[in-house]
Amino acid sequence: MIESKLRGKNSGGGLYVFTTHTFTTCGSTGRLGPTDTQITNTYTGTSVAGYVVGNSGGYQLWTAPSTGDYTVKIAGASGGGGGAGGAAGSGAVISSTLALVGGVTYSILVGQRGLHDLGGGGGGGSFLWQGTNLLTASAGGGGGGGGGYSGLQGNTGTSGSAGIGTGTATRGGAGGVNGYAGETFDNTGNSWDAAAGAGWYSDSTVAAQYSGTHANNAYRPLNSGLGGLPFNSAKPNNAGGFGGGGGGGGDANSIYSNGGGGGGYSGGGNGGMDVSENRGGGGGGGSYSGSAITTYSPNTFSGYITITLI
User: Fold this and answer.
1) What are the strands of the beta sheet with 60-63, ordered from one edge?
2) Mean pLDDT of the chain
3) N or C: which end of the chain has fewer CB within 10 A?
4) Burial (0-12, 13-18, 19+ Cβ within 10 Å), 275
């Protein structure tokens, strides 16, 4: 494992005293990010109080205290579990050293876990960017499938992974590459497919065979970052996590449901079929940083971003 140092001079002063801080989901769960009130209340009494605000869409807008090098450790969220013991894929965790500018506002999206049901929702990726320039992102894990088929963990590389499936007509969706969403593969003859995870540059799509009451595709960070909607009112608990997690598939009366792909720099593909039914786990998303990275053990919970002034 390696870690590079993008060295610059730290300024002598700063807007406020700052050493390190961990940004969290602020108590929010599911496909929607935290409210402005949740964000304000979470950071009241901390070193960043007054320097983090919401934007009415779940993003956290943080003003850096001073110009210098910062270590950014960033974790994507895990997916949701699937039916009959299908385990959720864990989120990726990486760190890198980035040069930030004092007084500049940076956008933060902390990924939230996919929800658990017969086909689990994909986990949301976590992102740090300025303007439209992505600085670093970590991948969410894939949602678990029915029948005990697990989702795949988020990748520390830039590409997402394919969802689990077998054969040419029953495969999982391909993982996204180069910052794009994973593939939502249409499993012919099946009408309750999950959706792939979104990437930095594109939203994922809804399967042509999807017959749920809600579109379960996921959205990229610059287009709300919302996770995919749950399958239908009978199965409301398989939404994708905030941060571009794909919604899970679901049949209201069956364990044969596939997992959504994880969000990230590139999205994970939706889960496919095994040899008999639709129940594969979703693929994990991909990660990114503008500097070389250090990798850590996968994250089994909601995402977080820890920023430390060097």
Assistant:
1) 52-54, 60-63, 105-109, 126-130, 133-138, 288-289
2) 89
3) N
4) exposed
For 195-206, how does the pLDDT look when each residue is reduced to its tens digit (9 = 90+)?
999 999 999 998
Identify the CA nearest to 190 among candidates 208, 174, 204, 206.
208
- Which residue's entry shows tokens 């029948």? 147
DSSP letters for 66-92: SSEEEEEEEEPPP----GGG-PPPPBP
Residue spans of the domains in the chain: they are 1-310
Query: What torsion, rounded to 10 degrees, do the Cα atoms 180, 31, 78, 52 define?
Result: 90
Question: What pLDDT shows up at residue 2?
Answer: 27
Q: What is the CA radius of gyration of the chain?
A: 18
The stretch 187-213 carries a mean pLDDT of 81
Say how far apart CA 185 and CA 269 lie, in whole Å.
8
